[in-house]
């Protein structure tokens, strides 16, 4: 049986991605308000419940599993963000379309950013670019990290 009205959202609430997570939460809350102000979905009001992904794959998996979505009556889980390989290829295609022939990939050593950079390298090369440098900066440690 499909449960309506309560949607669980997996966002980075803490960690390197907390600022982005808050922006995502604000956007989702604005959309939910707009939908609810227009009568909801098939007459039902929506409500979101935020669970913390911490911008970390293990933490996100644990958080999502702890939400016990099937036990709450959900029979479907929707992914509203592209998968990492798709994000990397989209970025590489954008770089190629803008004549970026030489690319430097720098990540912040978070699990998500490193994974994205790892996927981006072959995507850039597949799109005709050359990765001339690849490296990490350390959040809160390196003086040039803001």
TrEMBL record:
PANTHER family: AMINO ACID BINDING PROTEIN, LEU/ILE/VAL-BINDING ABC TRANSPORTER SUBUNIT. It comes from the Bacteria. Belongs to the leucine-binding protein family. It holds the Pfam family Peripla_BP_6. This is Leucine-binding protein domain-containing protein. InterPro entries: Leu-bd (IPR028081), Peripla_BP_I (IPR028082). The lineage of its organism: Bacteria, Bacillati, Bacillota, Bacilli, Bacillales. Keywords: Signal. Residues 13-66 form the Leucine-binding protein domain.
């Amino acid at each position: 049986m499909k449960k309506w009205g309560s949607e669980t959202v997996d966002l980075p609430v803490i960690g390197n991605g907390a600022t982005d997570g808050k922006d995502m939460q604000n956007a989702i809350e604005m959309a939910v308000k707009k939908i609810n102000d227009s009568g909801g979905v098939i007459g039902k009001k929506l409500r979101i419940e935020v669970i913390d992904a911490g911008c970390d794959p293990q933490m996100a998996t644990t958080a999502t599993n702890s939400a016990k979505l099937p036990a709450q009556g959900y029979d479907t889980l929707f992914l509203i963000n592209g998968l990492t390989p798709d994000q990397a290829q989209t970025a590489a295609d954008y770089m190629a379309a803008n004549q970026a022939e030489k690319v430097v990939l720098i990540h912040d050593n978070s699990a998500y950013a490193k994974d994205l950079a790892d996927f981006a390298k072959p995507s850039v090369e597949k799109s005709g670019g050359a990765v001339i440098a690849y490296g990490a900066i350390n959040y809160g440690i390196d003086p040039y990290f803001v």
